[in-house]
Design the sequence.
């Protein structure tokens, strides 16, 4: 049996929301999973307990035997953050002052709760067996050494350790360059279905040139004289040469294959309506917009539009594409 739940099994756990490439160990205990949100590229290892409101971003690792007790206030881990084994994070606790009784076996009227959200910002790493108390914000880029007690918020880009924790020195920001390289590499791979949402769009500009028409005609054999410097073109309805409409279709194909959703996608269907003519020297803005998503069938419907430099729509249509399904190669 696999160590982690399969995609189909994840659907049965009652998790509020999760992205792609999510690995949850079969030995993880989830309490109130309907309040758990998980981003993309997340791994949660054996014997971890997650209880209450917990929100995890992208590229997050939670090592074995951790405890995340979000209560009603929540624990929020941003992108590229991680916690080592046996780390415990509390967004909820009891009052230890002696003014109230403690522990959940006692009726609530004799106890009082402390509920404050905990935030781990981007690129935070927490060493093994550390404890983080309610109300703490660990700012971006902080590293906390093993067996530390984090009872106060930490200033960004520091290395901390101790019980209670104290700042030892500044932390290098070189990892930000590595993160940029990673995101650039991922962008070249193309988006998956879970990366997309209705309303997402991209725009790309292209110049229509006479040379592009000559090249298009040589490839396709469409040598209709209305597209060239001929008598027929100047006697036509438009009174001058008009560019091939299917050059615009190429712009749309390029935008879909290059960015929305990008590399690895499969073009399944496309409709076109040619609204206005396009002439040589026109600058065309191509816009691709997500209008519906069928995650079950891995299909996205896109609105495909082209506009000239006067903001007039010259082409309108819809496309159906299949985003890439293969996970990242790392």
Sequence:
């Amino acid at each position: 049996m696999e160590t982690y739940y399969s995609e189909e099994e994840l659907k049965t756990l009652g998790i509020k929301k999760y992205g792609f490439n999510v690995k949850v160990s079969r030995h993880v205990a989830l309490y109130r999973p309907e309040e758990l949100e998980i981003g993309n590229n997340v791994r949660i290892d054996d014997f971890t307990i997650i209880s209450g409101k917990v929100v995890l971003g992208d590229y997050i690792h939670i090592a074995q035997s951790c405890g995340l007790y979000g209560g009603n206030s929540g624990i929020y881990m941003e992108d590229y953050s991680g916690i080592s084994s046996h780390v415990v994070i509390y967004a909820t606790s009891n009052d230890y002052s002696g003014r109230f009784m403690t522990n959940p076996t006692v009726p609530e009227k004799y106890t009082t709760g402390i509920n404050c959200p905990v935030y781990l910002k981007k690129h935070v790493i927490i060493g093994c067996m550390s404890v983080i108390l309610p109300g703490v914000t660990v700012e971006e880029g902080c590293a906390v050494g093993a067996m530390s007690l984090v009872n106060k918020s930490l200033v960004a880009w520091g290395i901390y350790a101790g019980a209670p924790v104290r700042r030892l020195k500044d932390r290098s920001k070189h990892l930000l360059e590595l993160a940029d390289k990673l995101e650039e590499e991922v962008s070249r791979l193309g988006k998956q279905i879970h990366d997309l949402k209705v309303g997402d769009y991209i725009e790309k500009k292209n110049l229509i040139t006479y040379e592009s028409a000559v090249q298009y005609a040589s490839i396709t054999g469409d040598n209709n004289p209305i597209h060239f410097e001929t008598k027929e073109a100047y006697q036509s309805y438009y009174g001058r040469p008009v560019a091939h409409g299917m050059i615009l279709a190429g712009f749309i194909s390029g935008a879909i294959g290059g960015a929305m959703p990008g590399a690895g996608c499969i073009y399944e269907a496309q409709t076109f309506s040619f609204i206005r003519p396009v002439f040589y020297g026109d600058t065309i803005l191509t816009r691709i917009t997500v209008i519906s998503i069928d995650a079950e069938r891995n299909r996205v419907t896109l609105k495909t539009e082209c506009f000239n430099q006067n903001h007039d729509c010259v082409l309108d249509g819809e496309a159906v594409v299949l985003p890439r399904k293969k996970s990242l190669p790392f």
Remarks:
- The mean pLDDT is 93.
- The two ends are 23 Å apart (CA to CA).
- Residues 205 and 285 are 5 Å apart (CA to CA).
